[in-house]
Amino acid sequence: MPSLRFAVIGAGMAGILSAVKLAEAGYDGVTVYEKADRPGGTWRENTYPGLACDVPSHLYSYSFALNPGWSHLFSPGPEIQSYLEDVARRYGVEEMVRYGDEVVGLTWTDGRWQLETASGHRDEVDVVIAATGVLHHPKMPVIDGLESFAGRAFHSARWDHSTELEGARVGIIGTGSTAVQITSAIVDRVGSLSLFQRTAQWIAPAENPPYPEEVRSGFRADPASLEELHRTLSSLFEGFSASVVNAESAQMATLAEACRVNLETSVVDPELRARLRPDYRAGCKRLVISPDFYRAIQHPHAELVTEAIDRIEPGGVRTADGRLHELDVLVLATGFHVDAFLRPIEVSGRDGRTLAQAWAARPEAYLALSVPDFPNLFLVNGPNGPVGNFSLIEVAELQVGYILKLAAWLAGGTGRQLSASHPALEAFEADRVAAAANTVWATGCRSWYLDDRGIPAVWPWTFTRFRQVMAEPDLDAYDRVG
Ligand code: N01
Questions:
Q1: Which region among 173-182, 232-241, 397-406 has the lowest average model confidence (pLDDT)?
Q2: Domain extent for 178
Q3: Does the CB atom of residue 337 touch ligand 1 within 6 A?
Q4: What pLDDT digit, counting tens, does each position of 427-446 carry?
Q5: Is 219 part of any domain?
Q6: Which CATH number is 181's domain given?
Q7: Domain assignment present for 411
Q8: For residue 428, how many C-alpha atoms fall within 13 Å in the half-sphere facing its CB?
Q9: Ligand 1 pocket check for 53: Cβ under 6 Å
Q10: What whole-number distance in Å separates Cα of residue 297 and Cα of residue 421?
Q11: Which of these, 110, 304, 299, 46, lies nearest to 191 by C-alpha position?
């Protein structure tokens, strides 16, 4: 039995997966550190009305724990949270998790990681797997007067369930996937809804049919059919990945046309339609998928506000035209600090080099998972990885499979330390940045995919290539220390 000791940080989708796979590989020295009191990660933190996954549920599932019971093509957030909790329970992850204790420090000393938590607990491990998430730290908008608002104001990922929505005058800032889902979910209940749009979004139409009980029991009776469905969806998404990384592909043109037709045929008022029409290409920002957003925004008491926000006052939002939009509730669906990987954990690697120093310009990791001078620290869903409209579960499964191969090398006794070499990271980054220029994400829009230079901070190649690269580590790309 290998004698490595592991710390997994985070008990979200990727942390649960890591723990399951480490146990399956026979490692018994595994502790999962989770700052909250439950697993689930983003699905625990986000509880806003309308929360759902816009990747089909039968793809957004662990391949080893397919779920015949999904209620819908795109199942709601609470169902996903229950699924993750259920997997954590059934696969023995619960017993490995230390809840309510946040990792605050990681220091590489004498060939091992010294880990420290907020409670003062210490651990010493050979390998750290950081499964700390991407869309994790809420990004608050910088708008004058935000604190002066007299009603209830909160970020979408910190939904205040004590706030009464029935009959309330609700404002939503943002038009990303989150704001679109919230708008559709609450428009019928609120007194009025003002959606503050800084940038229009292309909306891909997609119905969200339920799976009738007979279909679900069919899946239960025939697990092979469920596997087949997972495979089919996976290859569909793999095809999509090939189109987004080639902005001129025929599939992108088809997608753009579907979004255009959706807008032109769904929105009746030409003036509203014009204000909802983006001036950039479909897919440039992360595609928003919704069956009913256009219906919602045409609701008699919904208003699309396209005047820029000037400031926030106790009574509501004042726009640049001088109008005060009076509100009781203000939802900030303004996204996340997507470059805050691992932070605020203080990480000190080989020779005292800190991650803050290594990432002073921006986060970078070889193949999105290993950072030079930080041996035996591996990231799942780390910087510049595949995040665009794919199943992040599938991404994480491939990454964890790769990390397990690195761990097997460490456990094999040939060497005890592995971190990507500087030349390997530099070559990877040069190729990545060059390839990113051909993607649809670089065709001229503002989006959370772009780094501070305006370069898409994502995997710019096909998912097929990602799968191939993850299949077998190239150990020559790593500094190996015995
Ligand atoms: O955040 P976003 P999100 N004044 O960053 C606007 C995943 N997700 O939470 O476009 C005015 O996309 C900002 O405006 P602009 C998914 O990957 C998945 O919606 O920059 N507006 C934008 O409209 C998604 O992409 C699901 O001009 C301001 C919005 O806020 C990711 O999470 C569901 C502003 C932020 O959009 C993030 O989505 C939901 C300001 N000061 C989310 N600051 C699934 O179904 C920001 N904005 C899987």
A1: 232-241
A2: 146-208+232-332
A3: no
A4: 999 999 999 999 999 999 99
A5: no
A6: 3.50.50.60
A7: yes
A8: 26
A9: yes
A10: 51
A11: 299
Å from CA of 50 to ligand 1 middle: 15
Biggest alpha carbon–alpha carbon distance for the chain: 70
Amino acid at 12: G
Question: Separation of 315 CA from ligand 1 center, angstroms?
Answer: 25
> Residues 291-320: what's their mean pLDDT?
98
Q: With a 6 A CB cut-off, is 174 part of the ligand 1 pocket?
A: yes
Give percent helix, percent strand, percent coil of the chain, each to the nearest 5.
35, 20, 45
Task: Using the mean position of ligand 1's atoms as its centre, give its distance from the Cα of residue 328 in Å.
Answer: 22
Distance of CA 84 to the CA centre of its chain: 15
For residue 63, what are the contacts with CB-CB under 8 A and spacing of at least 6? 230, 394, 397
Quick one: pLDDT at residue 387? 76
Residue 389 pLDDT class (50, 70, 90 cuts): low
Instruction: Give 135 Cα–ligand 1 centroid separation in angstroms.
Output: 10
- pLDDT of 367 > 50? The answer is yes
Average per-residue pLDDT in the chain? 96
Distance of CA 263 to the CA centre of its chain: 26
Question: What letter represents residue 322's amino acid?
Answer: G
pLDDT above 70 covers what percent of the chain?
99
Using only C-alpha atoms, what is the Rg of the chain?
23
| Bridge partner list, 109 | 112
Per-residue pLDDT at 386 = 86
Residue 436, in any domain of the structure? yes
Q: Is residue 328's pLDDT more than 60? A: yes
Co-location of 281 and 343 in the same domain: no
Residues 6+ apart with CB under 8 A from 329: 151, 152, 153, 163, 165, 168, 169, 170, 171
Count of beta carbons in the 10 Å neighbourhood of residue 468? 12
Shared domain for 359 and 391, answered yes or no, is yes
Q: Which residues pair with 204 in a beta bridge?
A: 289
Q: Residue 1 — pLDDT band, cuts 50, 70, 90? A: very low
- Domain match, 61 and 83 both: yes
User: Would the pLDDT of 262 be above 80?
Assistant: yes
Q: What are the beta bridge partners of residue 313?
A: 316
Closest CA to 376 of 422, 420, 424, 427: 420
φ, ψ of residue 414 in degrees (nearest 5): -65, -35
The count of domains in the chain is 2
54 plus 163 within the same structural domain: no
